[in-house]
Backbone:
């Protein structure tokens, strides 16, 4: 399964590189307080990176932290019963 994931990741990387090579037109990125000139491939990659970071933070906030809190609560509930049995 890990080999499959590696192949899929390499295919997406190759696809991203092809898109980057084919999109070299200059664009202006306008942000909240600033703007700067760059090529469209850099703009695409920045957008992709921002999407990954925001998606990861959403998963972290909605899944990981609540599950981690449940795990800590369960460990605290089990710890006193183990101490009483010993």
Residues:
């Amino acid at each position: 399964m890990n080999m499959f994931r590696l192949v899929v990741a390499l295919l997406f990387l190759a696809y991203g590189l092809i898109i980057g090579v084919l999109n070299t037109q200059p664009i202006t990125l306008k942000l909240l307080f600033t703007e700067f000139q760059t090529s469209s491939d850099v703009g695409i990659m920045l957008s992709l990176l921002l999407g990954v970071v925001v998606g990861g933070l959403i998963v972290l906030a909605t899944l990981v932290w609540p599950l981690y809190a449940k795990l800590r609560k369960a460990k605290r509930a089990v710890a006193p019963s183990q101490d009483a049995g010993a």
The beta strands are 26-30, 35-39.
